[in-house]
Design a protein that fits this description.
The chain is α+β, with helices and mostly antiparallel strands. The chain folds into three domains: about 240 residues, 2-Layer Sandwich (BirA Bifunctional Protein, domain 2), CATH 3.30.930; about 50 residues; about 40 residues. The chain contains eleven helices and twelve strands. The strands form four sheets. The protein has a six-stranded mixed sheet with strand order 2-4-5-3-1-10, with helices on both faces.
Amino acid sequence: MARNDGIDRTNVRNANLTKTQISNTQRHNEREKDAYTNPDIVPERTALNIHFKRPSGGYAEMFAQMEASKTISTRGLKEDAHLYGELIFDVNSAYFDNHGGYDFAKQFYTDAYRSAVEIVGGEQFILSAVMHADERNRAMSEALGRDVYHYHHHVVYIPVVEKRVLWSKRCKDKSLVGTVKETIIQVSSSKKWKSLPAVDEQGKPILQKNGKPVLRKSYSVLQDDFFNAMRTAGYTDVERGERGSTEEHLTVAQFKTEREQERLAALEHQVEKKEKVLQKVEQKIVVQKGTAATFAEIDSMGRKTLMGKMEFSQQEAEDLKRLAKKGIAADTTIKDLQRDLKSARRDAQIWKRRYEELKEQAKDFFAAIKKAPERVMAFISKVLHTEQAEPPRVLRQRESAVER
């Protein structure tokens, strides 16, 4: 995803799925739902989604057919095993928007699908491959004032490895024990994404300080394979997804959750800024209300007598005296501040005028310094030296006069 640093990055994520999870994945990828919790899906654009491999039936149905035909084997797997995998190929939305949008994304993910076939181990193990063009990038759309869509590519596949089955000790022909009985295509997510030892240029294992081999994380290898494939295909203006990023290990749901959390954090920041502005406004309102209340209290003091005079209670009289003293003190402070301000402005004008006069008087000196600094400094030094030497001569002349 974008990191607001102007760099476009390739990303591919892998999600391991059980048989109970695959139906929801199918409904989402194939747009079989009547309604979606994601408000950014635009149903009117679903027709623009592109299948690079369209499923021949339901994902679970296709899996069962391949198992029945012995194309794949689930021998020894637990009930809750990961039978499916989903690769999600992605580049930040700005990359496609800057290159023309839909048509460029279509070509990009056509080439990405070729890399998916290599990563999975054969097109026969891919159940569905679809590019989504109907999900709106809300943040970019709001920022640019026009609709921008987030093009990405879902590839649902069966994770398989080639497994050699050996003859066991129970074999009647003891000469066959330990030899290869058959080779099967085993469904195994853990073996498919097993981290392998890293090797140097000579093909030797790279070891840690404790002597154990350094492992190349499988998802890091996945990122490398996708990035290298797209560079080879001619997309030289993209960079690899960040190394060590947790994006290499996120499920689809986790990834989308993190993106929404980022968006939520941005919105919370905006709300916080607006709340601070609101607090300042409320403070001003409180001050104004307080002032109005004080005036209202003063206006309510006293009562008119039948003779038209005003009578005040002892407390009201004390309050009026206190307020009058505050008003007089405030007026005095204001007058003092106004006088100081006037004096400061006057002094500033005087110093400004003196500065301009000095600047005018010294302009020839600065011009001379600029043209011949060494000569000017030598002249100044000579003048200063002469002035320092002159008083003794005058003094000697005066002393001679006195002697005469």
